[in-house]
Amino acid sequence: MRVGVITGGTSAEREISIKTGIEMMKNLDKNKYKAIEIQINNRRDLIDKLLKENIDFALIALHGKFGEDGEAQEILESLNIPYSGSGILASSLCMDKDISKRLMKAEGIPTPEWIAIKKHQELNYELINRIGYPVVVKPVNGGSSLGTYIVKNSDDIVDAVLKAFSYDEEIIIEKYIRGREITCSILSGKLLPIIEIKPYSEFFDYRAKYDDKASEEIVIELDEELKCKVGNICRKCWSLFKCSVYGRIDMIIKDNEPYVLEVNTLPGMTKNSLLPKSAKSYGLSFTELLNSIIELSLKINR
């Protein structure tokens, strides 16, 4: 089977996408698949290379816009090429932090209080004060903590907002919750071992996610009551957003209550990424994880 590893892309997360692609290429089962790197720069580039390479399956290593938002999946479906992970709807819903939080709130899934602001829209200081400092400012469509800032008082809010707008046309200002940060990896709807993240910086930022020694990441066993809460929330998110194959749900736990930060339909797969670490703890090597992702994805009728 000819497996095209689609990497690169147009977003600010291009560097991480390339790293994910490198790890996928390195760990693909050579007895089962012929790996073909497809590094792209834009939409047209993806179409041209897909037509040229004549692949049987697309292993998506893209992150951020045009990849994680359902656009690349839409092209693949139009060309009748099966691909890894969630479909167009789940990808687009989870990518938009404002819409995904609205849906979670409607379904009773706890998520930190927030407001969304579009570029050139006037800041509503009354609403921000109602949320209460500190707050987290971040792009609506983005990942890897790029353009994400913790703001402790009103003096710094405008600067953080302007910086975040350099990454996206819309941002959210979210209540900062100090607590235990955990990430829940999902494979075929099953919760894999939970990892607690202890960044050495103020929060799990870009450097903490991708540098070897910028954070401590530990597989943990939660007490039964809390584990049950976390598991139920993961199942509700998975069903709500119509996710499939694999993903990762990030949460903060405060006073024994979990709050969902976001749902990732194409989590990072670099050598430092959380999903492969969780899978390894479960007993799956990187190669076995990729085998599972491909096999599960091929069973889906898009």
Question: What report would you give on this structure?
Answer:
The strands form 3 sheets. Strands 8, 9, 10, 11, 12 and 13 form a 6-stranded antiparallel β-sheet that branches. Strands 4-7-5-6 form a 4-stranded antiparallel β-sheet, covered by helices on one side. The chain folds into 3 domains: 2-85, Rossmann fold (3-Layer(aba) Sandwich); 113-175, Dna Ligase, domain 1 (2-Layer Sandwich), CATH 3.30.1490; 178-298, ATP-grasp fold, B domain (D-amino Acid Aminotransferase, Chain A, domain 1), CATH 3.30.470. With 302 residues, it is α+β, with helices and mostly antiparallel strands. Residues 204-210 have low confidence and may be disordered. The protein has 11 helices and 13 strands.
Keywords:
302 residues, alpha+beta, Dna Ligase, domain 1, D-amino Acid Aminotransferase, Chain A, domain 1, 3 domains, 6-stranded antiparallel sheet, 4-stranded antiparallel sheet, 11 helices
Average pLDDT, rounded to a whole number, is 92
The ordered H/E elements are EHEHEHHHEHEEHEEEEHEHEEHH
**What percent of the residues sit in helical stretches (DSSP H or I)?**
25-40%
**What's the CATH H-level superfamily name of the largest domain?**
ATP-grasp fold, B domain
Structural class by SSE content: alpha+beta
**Global Rg:** 19 Å
**What is the level 1 CATH name of the largest domain?**
Alpha Beta
User: Major β-sheet, in short?
Assistant: 6 strands, antiparallel
Q: Outline, from the CA principal axes?
A: globular
| Helical segment count | 11
How many domains? The number is 3
Task: Work out the number of β strands.
Answer: 13
First-last Cα distance: 19 Å
